[in-house]
């Protein structure tokens, strides 16, 4: 598709384009989910602990470890487990999750001026750059989440593990990362005009207002012969008229109707005509 200048395209409405609204709604939701997954100590749970009540279990996150039971009001946190925190995946997850949160905030600071909801035309380059940052932040969230899930039962710990289960932080991290990847990608495609400008809510100028400025051809003059009025010179026997104006006073003489002939009556042996 050949490139066209900005003057050859027109916005269909003054509303913020749908792809920008989609991204600016989805990304903050993903950021909140990622923040919860980062700080909450529930990346996995250890159940059926030895020398412990059967309802007691341990919650392990990337920053803290807690021991709790379903009936306890507050879990016991800040448990020490140097073996668990010494795993490479924990260090990588800590760094990438924090980086993801920071990059998302930077992306919001870049994308909000680019979206410009208070003006008619957004800055597509700036908004697309913000979308790229959102996409990268989502990738940085998915990497440690997927890695931790893959080696869930291989992460060593001091506490013996009998039943290892996935924690809710893994689910929240997946959802938040997908939200940021999807929202950032949709915003990024606004940098280039595609699908005939539909991704930006635009159409070509000639497709929108071209037919309205197409001039109609002037009406052709029609020569209408005029009937001579009594006393008018023969020079005005024909006058050109147009279709739109024929307001000359032209009188048309009435044709005399023939008098009815009476054939059954006669006067003096001759038929006569009734003078009406």
Give the N-terminus to C-terminus distance in angstroms: 85 Å
Low-confidence stretches: 272-276
Q: Please report which band the strand proportion falls in: under 5%, 5-15%, 15-25%, 25-35%, 35-45% or over 45%.
A: 5-15%
Mean pLDDT: 76
Question: What general form does the structure show?
Answer: elongated
State the secondary-structure class: alpha+beta
In what order do the strands lie side by side in the largest sheet?
Answer: 4-3-2-5
| Count of individual helical segments | 6
Q: Helix fraction?
A: 25-40%
- Write down how many β-strands occur, each being a DSSP E stretch of 2 or more residues: 10
Radius of gyration equals 44 Å
* H/E element order: EHEEEHHHEHEHEEEE
Main beta-sheet annotation:
4 strands, antiparallel
Describe the structure.
This protein has 276 residues and is an alpha+beta fold. Helices cover 38% and strands 15% of the residues. The protein contains six helices and ten strands. Strands 4-3-2-5 form a four-stranded antiparallel sheet. A two-stranded antiparallel ribbon has the order 1-6. A two-stranded antiparallel sheet has the order 7-8. A hairpin with a 4-residue loop joins strand 3 (57-60) and strand 4. Helix 3 packs antiparallel against helix 4 and helix 4 packs antiparallel against helix 5 (168-188). Residues 272-276 have low confidence and may be disordered.
Q: Which key features would you list for this structure?
A:
two-stranded antiparallel sheet; 4-stranded antiparallel beta sheet; alpha+beta; 6 helices; 276 residues; 38% helix; disordered C terminus
